Amino acid sequence: MFKALVIDKDDAGYATTLQELDDSALPAGDVTVKVQYSTLNYKDALAITGKGPVVRKFPMVPGIDFAGIVEHSDNPSFAPGDRVLLNGWGVGETHWGGLASRARVNGDWLIPIPGGFTAEQAMAIGTAGYTAMLCIAALERNRIVPKDGPILVTGANGGVGSFAILLLNRLGYEVVASTGRTQEAEYLRSLGASEIIDRAELSSPGKPLAKERWAGVIDSVGSHTLVNACASTQYGGVVAACGLAQGMDFPATVAPFILRGVTLVGIDSVMRPREHRLKAWERLAQLVDPAQLNQITRKIGLDEVGQLAHELLAGGVRGRVVVEL
Fold it and tell me: For labelling, which of 83, 159, 304, 308 has a CA lying 20 to 30 Å from the CA of 232?
């Protein structure tokens, strides 16, 4: 038997409940993992509350991340006792995810937990830190270096934003943090932001081109915020787009791209090839000081996830939420 948060939808409506399930209920897969820690992300909150079309089949166990220990494996890459983590691959959407004390998945979706991290620390980083690392790699691939100018991070108090600031600062970049909670300025400065701006500066319709302000952008917000971030990017700058907290729309013009040579890079963390994942986590192991993770992380139990999902969507949660199984 194992505990799981289960989302179901029927004639009675949409419901998320905490259940005890038999192991026979686990989906198909060649590796079974004893889940030690999972996370609560924006996508998870949308799934749990039913406020976004995240779940593609029912019933579904949400949770796009997990870390734990292999219990059984028919995959040659893993053996019982191996420490593993998973980000994305559709878990929590089309395949049962990490908000359960046991998971069965395709072993090709797993990677080893980097040696320097515990399972809890790996989930403190989770998809948010992994996505932030992919965004920074996109800036670097396009030759954006610290001397080029500041990097704007939108949604700065969220998980991706918090890690983006931390990692950029560690790499020597100047960081401008955009947030709707300017009262959290001290927290953002402690992560490495040198300037804090109110998200209201970017969240409403703006001009096709605005004053050049930053060499690069890591955006987890989308909509008008992303449009205005592009419009204010310096000549030859790069914008990495990885989220849609404000919306999926992109009501922009081509002006920044054809008049300033701005590059807009889409960041997908869900279906990323294994080699990209391994490289991102290798760099995270080099750059993240485990002692800093407590500053970013809040730990909860599985029975607290439902309530906190509503708070997260309302903008009341900062940093990362780790779920102890």
Answer: 159
**CA gyration radius, the chain:** 20
Give the bridge partners for 67, in sequence order. Answer: 37, 85
Burial class, 1, CB count within 10 angstroms (exposed 0-12 / middle 13-18 / buried 19+): exposed
Residues 6+ apart with CB under 8 A from 324: 36, 37, 120, 299, 300, 301, 302
Tell me the mean pLDDT in the region 124-136.
97
Does 2-113+289-324 carry CATH code 3.90.180.10?
yes
* Identical fold, 2-113+289-324 and 127-266: no
DSSP-derived 3-state class of residue 232: coil
Q: Tokens in use for 55? A: 């779940």
Of all residues in the chain, what percent are helix, strand and coil, respectively (each to 5)?
Answer: 35, 30, 35
Q: Which residues of 3-15 are buried (b: 16+ CB within 10 A; e: fewer)?
A: bbbbbeeeeeeee
Residue 3 is predicted with a pLDDT of 97
Most distant CA atoms of the chain, gap in Å = 60
Give 127-266's CATH code, choosing from 3.40.50.970, 1.10.10.10, 3.40.50.720, 3.40.50.10470: 3.40.50.720
Enumerate helices (H) and strands (E) in the chain, giving the number of each.
Answer: 9, 15
φ, ψ for residue 192 (rounded to 5)? 130, 5
Instruction: State the DSSP string of 72-138.
Output: EE-STT--TT-EEEEE-TTBTTTB--SSBSEEEE-GGG-EEPPTT--HHHHHHHHHHHHHHHHHHHH
Q: How far apart are CA 108 and CA 264, in angstroms?
A: 30
For residue 10, pLDDT over 90 is answered with: no
The predicted model scores a pTM of 0.95
Model confidence at 126, pLDDT cuts 50, 70, 90, reads very high
Q: What is the pLDDT of residue 13?
A: 85
Tokens found for residue 201: 């500066």
Domain locations in the chain as residue ranges: 2-113+289-324, 127-266
